[in-house]
Design brief:
Blueprint (H helix, E strand, L loop, with lengths): L4 H25 L6 H6 L1 H34 E7 L4 H9 L8 H6 L5 E9 L11 E9 L2 E8 L2 E13 L6 E10 L5 H16 L3 E2 L1 E5 L2 E4 L4 E2 L12 H13 L2 H6 L5 E7 L6 H12 L2 E5 L8 H9 L5 E5 L7 H4 L13 H9 L7 E7 L17 E4 L5 H12 L7 H12 L18 H10 L4 H6 L23
Parallel strand pairs: 8-12, 11-14, 11-15, 12-13, 13-14
Antiparallel strand pairs: 1-6, 2-3, 4-5, 5-6, 7-10, 8-9
Helix pairs in contact: 4-6, 10-12, 13-15
Length: 491
């Protein structure tokens, strides 16, 4: 009997399935060359692969998050870095130290400074009270310390402050370099203008009525001590018409900057004040700075370390609105006349360096320079030629006019009728202190305004004492001192 066709098909399908199963089983039974199947079938290895994948994904996500945050910070924030060498650094610190009222629980917690620094200033006050009381007044100012702070400038505007101290130091002062970084949101960037304006106005208010004196410290200008109270121009008594002539010339120069620019002339002016010591040269320059609301920048030309290059750099980087003061300028010429055997004069200013700094290719502009000397005969004509020195003025010994003006300034409220002044002037004339004497037995001599001022200060409110002690104004000559233990025998 022939087989059923359907049965034959079922048998064939079953055989094919069995053959396929046997083939797969055979392949599964055959081990792979690298043994990867066993590794992948190991649950520990498979779990490790999964964890590694998760770690890689987390690291990539973290990196992407940091990059995104950095990009967002660059796009949304603005940073301003201020170096300690910048003039605005102390201004901004003073501004940050101002008290601010915070409203709201969150604002108080955000803006609470936990790292502070103290800046202390002292000043002498009028000791008119009981002895030992109120001699020195100390002013303590609290400033943000090193670290990060947040302040609230105005409603909705916050400023992040980061004050850092670098590991490097200033070679001239030994102080570490510092930076102050202010961070704001980009939409609030216009607030920076307000910050610097307010900080400058605050610093100016602290110096109101004062004169700042700068001195050269290596490569930069530094304030010399605390700002000094402005000295009134009327307190300096010079010869008749001398003060008015200098002040008028300086003010005319300040008003003529455009005139200099239009004609291509360097905008600078130099003055030489010469005369004996104690006649008021430096005092007048200080009073003039107060009258003009200027500061004073002084350089000691005989200081070791002030070289030609350094002097030229300092004179081109003068503080704004300052009078340059070169005292005892004749001291700079010792290098020109006294040299060592090898021709080297030391690490100080040379004559040619001084000339180039005042009026050469290295000379700066927008400058008013005052030179003083007690020995004009020691100055080279090349130094005092026009262009370097535009006006020379002798500040000489005390005249009758100066003595009378000083008397009125000290005793004007006591000597109402002027009789005391007349007696004092007659006493000075009898002593020959105005350069001439009616008595042939009295030599003609001079005294200085500093000596007269010292006499008046010694006799405060006592004009009779000043008249009686007028003889003390006679210049004294001092001989050589005796050796220690020597006996002085009578003449």
């Amino acid at each position: 009997m022939s087989p059923d066709p359907q049965t034959s098909l079922a048998t064939a399908a079953t055989a094919a399935t069995a053959a396929t199963t046997n083939t797969i089983a055979a392949k599964a039974a055959t081990p792979s060359t690298l043994g990867l199947d066993a590794l992948f079938n190991n649950p520990v290895f498979a779990g490790g692969i999964g964890l590694a994948g998760l770690g890689a994904a987390a690291a990539f996500g973290r990196r992407a998050l940091i990059s995104g945050a950095s990009l967002l910070r660059r796009q949304m924030l603005v940073n301003v870095e201020i170096s300690k060498r910048d003039p605005s650094y102390p201004w901004v610190l003073q501004w940050l130290a101002q008290p601010r009222e915070e409203t709201g629980f969150i604002a108080k917690r955000l803006t609470r400074m936990r790292k502070l620094a103290v800046s202390t200033t002292t000043r002498s006050i009028n000791p008119g009270g009981p002895a030992g009381e109120g001699r020195i007044h100390a002013d303590f100012r609290v400033q943000p310390g090193y670290g990060r702070h947040i302040i609230r400038h105005k409603p909705g505007v916050y400023i992040a402050v980061n004050r850092e101290k670098a590991s490097t130091t200033n070679t001239s002062t030994g102080e570490p370099h510092e930076t102050l970084t202010l961070t704001l949101l980009w939409p609030h960037r216009h607030v920076l203008g307000e910050v610097f304006t307010e900080a400058h106005a605050l610093a100016t208010s602290f110096q109101e009525g004062k004169t700042v004196v700068y001195c050269a410290r290596r490569m930069e200008w530094q304030p010399l001590g605390k700002p000094r109270l402005k000295r009134k121009l009327a307190s300096v008594i010079l010869g008749e018409g001398v003060k008015e002539r200098i002040v008028g010339d300086v003010k005319e120069f300040l008003a003529a900057q455009q005139w200099y620019t239009d004609r291509g002339v360097p905008y600078r002016r130099g003055y030489l004040l010469y005369g004996p010591p104690g006649t008021g040269k430096t005092s007048f320059i200080q009073a003039l700075a107060g009258e003009l609301d200027y500061s004073v920048a002084m350089v000691n030309l005989s200081e070791v370390g002030i070289t030609d290059d350094l002097l030229a750099q300092l004179l081109t980087q003068l503080p704004e609105k300052s009078l340059l003061l070169l005292e005892d300028v004749d001291a700079a010429f010792q290098n020109r006349r006294q040299r060592d055997s090898d021709g080297y004069t030391g690490n100080t200013v040379t004559f040619s360096g001084l000339l180039n700094a005042l009026d050469g290719l290295a000379a700066g502009e927008d400058r008013i320079a005052f030179l003083t000397t007690n020995h004009i005969d020691r100055l080279d004509p090349a130094l005092i030629r026009p262009g370097r020195v535009d006006m020379m003025m002798r500040i000489g010994e005390a005249t009758r006019y100066q003595a009378a003006e000083m008397w009125r300034r000290y005793y004007g409220d006591i000597d109402k009728d002027g009789r005391g002044c007349k007696r004092f002037l007659e006493s000075l004339e009898e002593l020959g202190l105005f350069g001439q004497s009616k008595d042939p037995n009295v030599p003609a001599r001079h005294t200085s305004t500093a000596a007269i001022q010292g006499l008046f200060q010694f006799n405060k409110g006592d004009m009779e004492g000043a008249i009686n002690m007028a003889e003390g104004l006679i210049p004294r000559e001092f001989g050589p001192e005796l050796p220690s233990g020597a006996m002085k025998s009578p003449a």
